[in-house]
Amino acid sequence: MDNLPLSEKNQETSAEESQRPPRADLRDAIGWIALGLAVLVGSITMDRLEHQNINPYTVPGLLPGLLGIAMVILGSVLGVRSWRRGAAMQPSPPLSSLDREQRKRVVIATVLCIGYGVVLVGHGLPFWLASSIYVTASILVFQRISPNLAERRLDLRSIVKALVIGVLSSIVTWLIFEEVFLVRLP
Prior knowledge:
0% strand; mainly alpha
């Protein structure tokens, strides 16, 4: 594809896009709009720090709010495009085993992220420990559900490897936020 002229690349990309069912794009659009609205609501309800005379252009939540608005706009564009392609008229195609596996992985990743954000962070555990638990658990869970049977086996070596990656990544993240960005983490 790299050696093709630009017009042929565009035709190939258009062919790939036309293979994606419009209903799938509509579902994705709804998801992006919902996520954008959640981010926007969260950013609006953040403490504005007025009591500290913070400049309104540097208040917490400004950038997440703008990103939330962008997600809503782009999700809406995707939704309109899929609607015009007939998303409401086409029946949903049956799910393949690959589609079911991908959905399962998305649900597991979502549950892990929500567990990290709602249960682990900000409830007494230091940030580095909560993040270590999250990263280690994520590695082990996704290794356990790997399509490759050889990777599914959890032995002492793979557990130690996941633990080392989890601890090191969380300590590096914690140090960068504390020392470089000067953000105090819980």
